[in-house]
Specification:
Elements (H helix, E strand, L loop, with lengths): L9 H15 L16 H7 L21 E2 L2 E2 L5 H15 L2 H24 L7 H8 L18 H6 L14 H19 L2 H10 L1 H11 L11 H18 L19 E6 L6 H6 L5 H7 L17 E6 L16
Antiparallel strand pairs: 1-2, 3-4
Helix pairs in contact: 3-10, 4-7, 5-10, 7-8, 8-9, 8-10
Length: 333
């Protein structure tokens, strides 16, 4: 009898091979790929207590508050335009999940440090959310060269007492730049008599807002016809305020250990020119990277002494130490 392969066409051999593979890799009907006790995603959401609007496989519209205030001033939610603009920003920022999660994490580190500075300067606490929408609480640089948490341009920084040189740019200092922002906001409030208008002017400028209020013969930001960016500005600020004050209402469940916290630091002074900040940091037991993490306002690998005779105050991690050598050979004579 001739070999069976002689009589079977190649295609039949292919069919037989596939059948064998299917039988070989067939899953056990008594087992589950996910495991017998593993719940479905929507069951996890329900067990976690997620609100109906953001749980399960169905995404529902978020409710708007009946009343809302910013810096003690009532938001006119009875105005359909204002209400719909808030509705948009609330949904955009709620469902922009990854970005908003990191805003909440960073806010836990920075807002408790920013809030006391606002209070000391007589600026309402709600303005801490302005830093959030300006920069996501990061030292960003805008296309217009506005810098830092508060997005301050160079000319304004110098007007408000911040040092901006080749080696140092205090716009990158989150707390010193907060002081400068307070000066601006107080001036804007004195000009407009409204914290809402003061906040809006932070985006469009005091002159720009004043001009539009005069042209359109109104007194309130909410009554102005504005460009898209400024039209959304205050409503995004309000949406972030709502989400950060009530994160679980909008589906953000972040465990305390997952938040970012202020890091324990000590301070050391620099009163002389330092030609090599890499070596200066290493002599104190830290890396240059760590030095820059805590002092992003140092812009070069060297720094000159302040002209006013005051020292530069440098933040370092708690484990840093004074140089072991008696004389700091890294400073110029």
């Amino acid at each position: 009898m001739k070999n069976l392969r002689t009589y079977l066409p190649p295609i039949l051999w292919g069919v037989l091979a596939i059948a064998v593979l299917i039988l070989w890799f067939r899953p056990n009907p008594n087992t589950s790929v996910a495991g017998p006790s593993e719940p479905y995603p929507w069951e996890v959401a329900e067990q976690a207590g997620l609100p109906e609007a953001v749980s399960g496989q169905t995404i529902r519209a978020l409710p708007l508050p009946d009343t809302l205030y910013f810096a003690g001033e009532r938001v006119p939610l009875e105005d359909p335009d204002v209400r719909e603009r808030l509705d948009r920003e609330l949904h955009v920022n709620t469902f922009f999940h990854s970005n908003t999660i990191f805003l909440i994490k960073r806010a836990n580190r920075w807002l408790p440090q920013i809030a006391p500075i606002l209070a000391q300067n007589g600026v309402p606490d709600d303005f801490k959310y302005l830093a959030v929408i300006e920069s996501d609480l990061q030292n960003k640089v805008s296309p217009a060269k506005a810098v830092g948490f508060w997005q301050i341009v160079k000319a304004t920084a110098k007007e408000r007492g911040l040092v901006v040189t080749r080696e140092v740019d205090e716009r990158y200092h989150p707390l010193k730049s907060t002081e400068a922002a307070c000066q601006y906001l107080l001036q804007a409030h004195n000009r407009f008599g409204s914290w809402t208008n003061a906040a809006a002017s932070y985006n469009i400028g005091q002159y720009g807002l004043d001009k539009r209020l005069d042209e359109q013969q109104v007194d309130s930001y909410y009554d102005l016809l504005l460009n898209e960016e400024t039209k959304r500005y205050m409503l995004r600020l309000l949406a972030i305020k709502l989400i950060m004050e009530n994160p679980e209402t909008y589906g953000f469940f972040i465990e305390p250990e997952q938040l970012y916290y202020p890091e324990e630091t000590i301070t050391m002074d620099i009163s002389e020119d330092v030609k090599d900040l890499v070596g200066w940091a290493q002599a104190r037991g830290v890396t240059y990277k760590t030095l820059k993490r805590h002092n992003p306002w140092l812009r070069q690998k060297d720094v000159k002494a302040r002209r006013d005779g005051k020292p530069w105050v440098i933040a370092l991690p708690a484990y840093a130490h004074e140089p072991i050598v008696a004389t700091d050979s890294l400073s110029s004579d």
